[in-house]
Design the sequence.
């Protein structure tokens, strides 16, 4: 069995989870479920990033200790996972002992190797971004951009990690491994960034300024810079499990350069540890065309949508709407269009018709199919084509197109039913009509079973429900589930299943 270790970014716990966090979990979950179906031995890690200035400040604002604050918000992030039906194997908090121990071990190793040095540093510091700024960060008029918040000039001694000496190595690595970052144009952006000389990375924060962090093992007057701490989670979670290196880190576009594409590979290289196999970079969601923010009221709470429409409707929308790597816009109107036309009227309709007609004309049992006529052959041929296209699309993270093609097959199955019109055949006593009726019932049920098998990674609960009403338990080997055959012959189906009820019209 091929091992497949996949991670999400770990979320800052200074605010509640929103749609962007939910998307990343769902995307990673779809990949994890798909790889499991493909037979891989998957390990799926997610978690939370609890240290640093932002959390310390948020806790102060609430008048509680950082640990208590982090406990509360982490619980919210953790609660989101079952709400989204996420199949993670592990959940890491950067305040876990297992994590803190490994961060300190790695820091000590780098220090002993001479990769970390102490130096006096004078410069402009942004508290909001927790980083020292450079002259090139200034705006034309000399002021600092808003995103940096309050900027103060400070002089302090700090520990630095020798990033710069690895610059040529990193450029060489990226040039030789074209598929390290998906989509490829992101890798080009990293190489572009690496055209300027790198500065060594300040990896410490004096404790008088920041208490809430992991103390440096070689100097307890400092805590570890939050990114150096956070990135290590991918390794610390599996250090004892023999899972390193990761096969895929799933992250948003804002945290590729420099943390994941520069700091992390260099940290690993300096430690003599293998690099992750790949980094998948997704785009950002806006809501009604603007950046999500609590103050403007366009903050989407994922659990609200999952509660109103069902978790699979939300998962479907997120995966169908976004082309992985690009940005997308979330609007309730577009959500409703897909919900009504694709889920309720297409998939939901196919399920209802199949159950209803099997109940009415087949006494609730899927009959054996007779010889395939032209319409059946066409549908089977479309199935072969669909399966042949969808799997490679999923392997290349093109889930939105994969879903599009799967739904085209569902549309074609509904069209097949229209063509065969079992309700007319049912009225005829002629033996050839009765034979065709049996064939059409068997064909629609089999096509539904197959379509559902392809939807399983995106809509696991829906797939389970549909299989249950078809009286079917899928086998363990997914590839065997994808062959057109007679698996449902004799299956007893349920009379009805309400999958995607009409939403209450009053809400906007
Ligand atoms: N804590 C760091 C990551 C450390 S990983 C070692 C962080 N946290 S975050 O909470 O700000 O973001 C977590 C993930 O959510 C990131 O991958 C980020 O890109 C993603 N998203 C946050 N807002 C988003 C959208 N509006 N849309 C899509 N994803 C977004 O960064």
Sequence:
């Amino acid at each position: 069995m091929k091992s497949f270790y996949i991670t999400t970014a770990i979320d800052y716990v200074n605010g509640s989870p929103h749609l962007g966090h939910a998307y990343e979990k769902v995307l990673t979950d779809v990949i994890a479920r798909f790889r499991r179906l493909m037979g891989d031995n998957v390990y799926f890690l997610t978690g939370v990033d609890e240290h640093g200035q932002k959390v310390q400040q948020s806790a102060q604002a609430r008048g509680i200790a950082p640990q208590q604050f982090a406990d509360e918000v982490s619980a919210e992030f953790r609660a989101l996972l079952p709400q989204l039906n996420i199949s993670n194997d592990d959940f890491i908090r950067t305040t876990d002992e297992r994590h803190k121990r490994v961060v300190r071990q790695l820091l000590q190793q780098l220090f002993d190797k001479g990769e970390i040095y102490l130096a006096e540093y004078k410069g402009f510091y942004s508290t909001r971004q927790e980083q020292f700024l450079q002259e090139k960060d200034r705006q034309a008029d000399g002021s600092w951009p808003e995103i940096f918040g309050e900027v103060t000039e400070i002089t302090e001694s700090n520990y630095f990690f020798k990033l710069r000496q690895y610059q040529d190595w990193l450029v060489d690595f990226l040039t030789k491994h074209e598929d390290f970052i998906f989509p490829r144009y992101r890798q080009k952006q990293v190489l572009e960034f690496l055209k300027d000389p790198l500065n060594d990375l300040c990896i410490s924060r004096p404790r008088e300024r920041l208490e809430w962090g992991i103390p440096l093992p070689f100097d307890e007057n400092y805590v570890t810079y939050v990114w150096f701490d956070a990135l290590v989670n991918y390794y610390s979670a599996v250090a004892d499990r023999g899972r390193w290196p990761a096969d895929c880190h799933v992250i948003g576009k804002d945290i590729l350069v420099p943390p994941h594409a520069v700091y992390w590979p260099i940290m690993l290289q300096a430690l003599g540890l293998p690099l992750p196999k790949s980094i998948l970079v997704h785009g950002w969601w806006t809501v009604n065309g603007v950046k999500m923010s609590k103050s403007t009221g366009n903050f989407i709470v994922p659990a609200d949508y999952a509660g109103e429409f069902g978790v699979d409707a939300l998962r479907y929308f997120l995966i169908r709407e976004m082309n992985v790597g690009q940005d997308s816009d979330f609007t309730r109107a577009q959500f409703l269009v897909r919900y009504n036309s694709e889920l309720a009227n297409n998939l939901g309709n196919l399920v209802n018709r199949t159950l209803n007609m099997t109940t009415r004309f087949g006494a609730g049992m899927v009959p054996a199919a007779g010889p395939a006529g032209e319409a059946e052959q066409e549908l089977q041929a479309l199935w072969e084509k669909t399966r042949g296209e969808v799997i490679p699309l999923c392997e290349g993270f093109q889930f939105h197109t994969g879903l599009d093609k799967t739904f085209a097959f569902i549309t074609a199955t509904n069209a097949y039913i229209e063509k065969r019109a079992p309700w007319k055949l049912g009225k005829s006593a002629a033996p050839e009509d009765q034979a065709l009726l049996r064939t059409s019932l068997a064909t629609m049920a089999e096509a539904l079973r197959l379509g559902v098998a392809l939807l399983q990674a995106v809509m696991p609960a829906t797939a389970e429900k549909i299989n249950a009403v078809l009286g079917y338990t899928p086998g363990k080997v997914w590839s065997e589930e994808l062959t057109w055959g007679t698996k449902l012959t004799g299956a007893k189906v349920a009379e009805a299943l309400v999958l995607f009820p009409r939403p209450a019209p009053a809400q906007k």
Q: What stands out?
A: The first helix runs from residue 19 to 37. The chain has two domains: 3-300, 331-481.
